[in-house]
């Protein structure tokens, strides 16, 4: 449970399935499309929810996705993150890359 970032819950069956990846939208490919299962992204108290941040237990950090805007540069995005009290994440490992790809679905 400590590594769970999201979960499926079936109230009628009183069962939950926790997964160590978070998805913004309910993933369709995880085999839980049967009626009665609800999807939840687990948010952590360490992250400002009102700003849209999600906590990664894998990387022990909060992060947020900003929609790509081709008119913005790296420095622009860096400034946006700094203004929100964070810093622009550097994707410097295959593990981070895969985690972000999984999160985005």
TrEMBL record:
InterPro entries: C-type_lectin-like/link_sf, CTDL_fold. SUPFAM superfamilies: C-type lectin-like (SSF56436). This is C-type lectin domain-containing protein.
